[in-house]
# Entry
Amino acid sequence: MPHTFNALPPDDAVAALLTCCGSRRWAQRLARHRPYPDLGALLAASDEGCYDLSAADLDEALAAESASPLPPAGAPGPGTLAAHTALRAAHAEYERRFRHAFVICLDGYGEDEVLDQMLAGIRTRLGNDPDEERAVAADELRRTVSGRLARLIARCP
# Structure
């Protein structure tokens, strides 16, 4: 694991971690427990921190996800414009129904699969009751955060 992350000043480490998850408590916790011997230890601490998010922490993290972009509108393939229109409508309905951003981990999917996976995921999850969906969203957030964190560390020299 690059030593750069472990050596960051505490405020800089928190700022970097907040790009992965919008919960200040999660970011402060991970920054406070440095140094991490390797990426696996950091990811395990991240997962534990995500599982320990209070309702308010999860609200904060989900609120930070509101700015998450949709897949590029210029993505290739037939029906892309119609799919984007459907996805925007589904996002609006999701946020109205659940009062937080739709979060889905799409790590491992190719660019040509992202739009379909998002649309299928949001359509399926719109059928969840609010408590069930909050649990699903928390798990998707945890998985998304792990991927972001791994990419953050990979960029550290």
